[in-house]
Amino acid sequence: MSKNTGITRRRFLGGSAAVGAALQIVPSSYVFGGPTAPSNVITRAVIGTGGMGMGHVTKYPQTLAVCDVDKARLQRAVDKAGGDVSAYSDWREILDRDDIDTVHIPTPPHWHAQIAIAAAKAGKDIYSEKPATHTLAESRALVEAVERAGVVYQANTWGRGSGHFMRKLVASGLLGTPLAVCLNPRYCPTGFKIRQWSGRPNLQPQAVPEVLDYDMWLGPAPYKPYNAHRVHGSFRGYWDYDEGGFGDMGQHHIDPIQYALGKDDTGPVEVEAVAPWPQHPDACGLWGTIYLKYADGTTMIIESWEWGEKTTEGRPLLEGPNGKYWGGNRLEPANLLEELRHFPDPPRLQSWEHAVRTRENVHGAKPNVWQATRSADILHLASLAVRLGRKITWDPVKQNFPDDADAMRLASPPRRAPWLL
Question: What is the pLDDT of residues 182-191, one digit of tens each?
Fold first, then answer.
């Protein structure tokens, strides 16, 4: 494998600092700090080169390394990057390279935190696919690792710019309190893909393809016999690797709402699900509605429209005692729009490149590690409520379930050695 032994952009920035003391695509008007001259390239390694991963693979020499446990997918990534790109089957070998600035992690979700924690310890900046983590325990471990290392982390959600207007509206207080949020396919055009990514119970063992290192694909997940439906896209339908369609799509829609509500540093205290029960222990199934309540009385209803009644049809996206918000800039009563003009806009959102170059990572167009884990935790809490078939109580400060051993067990499932947190 070839390695670039010249001075890196990371080393240059570090030396300069020591001497000088240093539910949508985000609208460009809300983001600043874009790419700079090609002579100052932020280099990357891409770990996981499946459907999402190939979108992260760029031409060499921006992409210096690619990694996958499927030889066929790895070869496609090598062909796309071209040049002197290096290919790996074990992502751990990448972290020793000094010429790689950032690690992109578009693997299945059960690998996201494991690789991100190791990358943080290696001093790499991290750009992870959503969801940021697969379990509540991973969220805590990931925050701790990124904080200790002081690296830049962002999760690739669809951007907080879609919540920019709503953030201003909430901060103004014009709607009053308590607030109620309603999310359903009308406000989330992609939906939550609950039916699409339902798993198949009682999968039959199949022969592992020669091109796939299945043991490495499983990683920290418990061993179960290979079946093609467990891997490559449809992995989303199994609790061991994802949380169904909500795990796949949910953070795109939840993260802008957390941002808009000003709740990036907290989460709900009660979560309840309307869903068939008992759920299958392996295969993710359908659910109808998730109810969340925050300590200040804010409530959120998330409805899939895939099971049960459509109880939220015709409701506004956001409402309070003094008005309603229907998305876009549609407010009731109409005079609220004029009143809102007198309030300050939220800070402009920064690009990933800006965060890497400046080390400023508070107002990102993509959520940082604290923001991303809080919104990912809502996915995990919702999934626990579905699987347990009852209301759960969560302490967002201590980040635990008071006197609820069953919830704590699902929040921190066993991991296969050597993949411990």
Answer: 999 999 988 9
pLDDT for 32 equals 41
Cα separation, 293 vs 300, in Å, equals 6
- CATH 3.30.360.10, the chain: domain bounds: 161-411
Partnered with residue 204 across adjacent β-strands are none
Question: 257 vs 286, 300, 371, 378, 381, CA distance in Å?
Answer: 23, 10, 11, 11, 16
CATH 3.40.50.720 positions along the chain are: 9-159
187: alpha, beta or left? (left if phi > 0; alpha if psi -120 to 50) = alpha
pLDDT score of 47: 98
Q: What is the pTM of this model?
A: 0.91
- What is the homologous superfamily of the domain 161-411 according to CATH? Dihydrodipicolinate Reductase; domain 2 (3.30.360.10)
pLDDT higher than 90, residue 122? yes
212 φ/ψ angles, rounded to the nearest 5 degrees: -115, 130
d(CA 307, CA 192): 12
User: Distance of CA 290 to CAs 215, 230, 365, 417, Å?
Assistant: 34, 26, 27, 34
Q: Does the pLDDT of residue 28 top 70, yes or no?
A: no
Q: What is the CATH number of domain 9-159?
A: 3.40.50.720
Q: How does DSSP assign 69-118, residue by residue? A: SBHHHHHHHHHHH-TT-EEESSGGGGGG-TT--EEEE-S-HHHHHHHHHH
162 pLDDT band, cuts 50/70/90, is: confident
Model confidence at 101: pLDDT above 60: yes
152 and 369 in contact (C-beta within 8 Å)?
no
Helical H segments across 189-334, by residue range: 214-218, 244-261
pLDDT at 23: 34
